[in-house]
Structure prediction request, 68 residues.
Amino acid sequence: MFSAISPAAAPLIVDAMPSDPLAQALVGIVLLALVTIVGRFLLSLAWKLLMFAAVGVAILYGLTLVGI
Prediction:
């Protein structure tokens, strides 16, 4: 997954971080907010898929009990 990042690019990533502690805190908070928003979207999608699967299995189970 990270094979496209060469070891030579690591100093560029580290140099891109601000040296001011408040700026580092801001970058960390923004990244945490981004991860939270993406995670919330994915959990919402997973919850909907889980509910559809539960309803589908319940319907199939009900049909097998009736004998259809």
Q: What stands out?
A: The two ends are 47 Å apart (CA to CA). The chain has two helices and no strands. The CA atoms of residues 50 and 56 lie 10 Å apart. Residues 26-68 form one domain.
